[in-house]
Amino acid sequence: MLFSRAPLILDILFLAMLAFLPLLLFSVYLVRIKKKFLIHKRLQIGLTVALMSILIAFEIEMRLNGWRQYTDESPYNHTTLMPFLLSHIAIASATLVFWIVTFIHGLKKIALPPIQSPSTSIHKNLAWISVIGLTLTTLTGWIFYYMAFIAINTHT
């Protein structure tokens, strides 16, 4: 545990998202403003590989060791924690689907070297949904992380 009651992988995921969101927004800036398509593509590949690696490690850890045992001190443990988690999972699952579709579309349909093409508008629309979804996933993940692993029940 780095700075919470959470399993180490959740602390790592929390910190990774602190870096991931600014890098994602920088990647959008590179493609939209600077028209640096190749750098954008390489950064997106790196971000996707990194995020998927962390998510796989996260899923393995959760399946093997769980997380509920770390929430005993949370004031939200038996109230809003599970409904909030289910909302987070719904957003995260939809975002993952959009992210994968956007990523595969970019790899398959965008020319090499990457240039603006007819497929760009489809990719751009998918990408904005993915960026918004990832932002919401991150924010709801951070809120859940606080509720489950940082907040302390002062009534015990």
Explain the layout of strands and helices.
Blueprint: H1 8-32, H2 37-65, H3 81-109, H4 119-149
Question: How would you characterize the overall build of this protein?
Answer:
- This protein has 156 residues and is mostly helical.
- It has one domain (8-149).
- Helix content is 73%, strand content 0%.
- It has helices at residues 8-32, 37-65, 81-109, 119-149.
- Helix 1 (8-32) packs antiparallel against helix 2 (37-65) and helix 3 (81-109) packs antiparallel against helix 4 (119-149).
- It is elongated.
- The mean pLDDT is 91.
Looking at how many chains there are and whether they match, the oligomeric state comes to single chain
- What is the CA–CA distance across the termini? 23 Å
The number of helices is: 4
SSE run = HHHH
The largest sheet is: none
In short:
The protein is built from four helices and no strands. It has 156 residues and is mainly alpha-helical.
Quick tags:
156 residues, mainly alpha, 73% helix
